[in-house]
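Usage example:
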Amino acid sequence: MVVSFFFRAEGSFLGRIEPEILSWVTIVGGFTLLLGVVSIVRVNYTAVKRKADGWGYKLATLISVFVIAIPAMLPTGWSDQFGRGDGSIYKWLFNYLDAPMMATMFAMLAFYIASAAFRAFRARNAEATLLLITAIIVMLWRVPMGEEFLLSIHPDIPGWINTYIMGGANLAVQRGIIIGAALGAAAMALRIMLGIERTYMGK
Amino acid sequence: MGEVLAYIGLVIVGVFLLYKTFKTDDRRYIYLAVGIFVIFPFFIPLDIPVIVSPETQQLYDAVEALPDSSTVLLTFDYYASALPETEPMSRAALHHLFRKDCKVVTLTTIPLGGPSISEDVTREMAEIYGKEYGIDFVNLGYKANYVAVLKGMGSVIDIIYPTDNSGTPLSEIPMMKDIKNYSDIDFIYVVSDNGIVDYWMSIVNAQYQIEVGCGVTAVMAPKYYAYIGSGQMTGLLGGMKGAAEYERLIGKKDEATKGMGAQSLVHLFIIFSVLAGNIIFFFERRKRFNQAGGAR
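Running the assembly step on the lines above writes:
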């Protein structure tokens, strides 16, 4: 896979085996999901058995795993409520429990951000003041009401924000981060492939 | 007139709750204010014009420029937690693609709910436009290990996806007979709430030279200006506002446009509370400074 990333391998032996190897990788990926389920069951089952702190929550996790997974895996020929189609137990649990709960957790961020911004976002020094001003300008620009307000001051302000803040300072910083992270990832991959980095194996 | 009075009342309530927070240092007043500002515009809607950004326009133009009946790969790379931001993008994209009679291939790299979301949204939109499964659109579903999936689809799609989401072999699906790998796909429309976008750019766009346009959550959008600036990414929708801009361009005001009222009010409330907090901070600091000076 690594070699095929760098060379056009069509027609060669490498080109012929590449799809096969990639197919194997997706199968191995499937087994890693299974490993995750086994790990969750083992860790939580042990905690429930020992009545460790918060064992009730761990029991709820275990029940949830089985209640959502088993009906989804059973053949639809046995019942319309099995499998993942319309009217199935899985679909009901996903639509009416899982999705609203995930959305609720994510939506709570808005409340915490509002509170944190009010209590902690202070112009204590020049850098913090610059960050504060930029954040307020971008927040105004990212909503229609704020954008209308900026337009009422000068018709070019939204364009300037897009060009100089988002497409200028932000772009330069993001590009630096992306390139830095990519170099770091390449170095780490090389360390793993050469056997220098073995912490992922617990060593 | 009634609406104006209602919004004046809302502002007074917001200021009062902020004042209570100052007085009591109880953050629950801020939570209550945010809750009210989110809910209020859904009962008394705000009709605010949405201005289209150049990045959204670029994505719209790229799709518009595709010849009719082109093949487009649309991804549903998001969890249920980000549905309010990302689902309107998927819906708007499907409106645009089905209206242009494009053949749409959908897939997801998200195991938890991804296949269900893509199936539900695509079938609902297909019904509106009278599109038929297997002829006009196909849902490939989910496969583990997205790097291998993205790379493998460049060689042969049906090695990575031998069947579609419901288990039908791809060889039995008429639309997939002519779609073997990326070279048969004209455009890739990624809707995502996570870092998978980087892989669509570095593996698919960079190695297979396929045009990729993206819709991402608002917090992710600043990062992807780097790809827009380099010309690698063909258009970007940033958060619910990006989706609302796209809805405006396709002429279908939907959930994202409705959400702009709530988002505008909460943003303005946060800005106002940050400014108020800083004014108080400034006066308190000055008071402390004067007291310290007086003591000397």
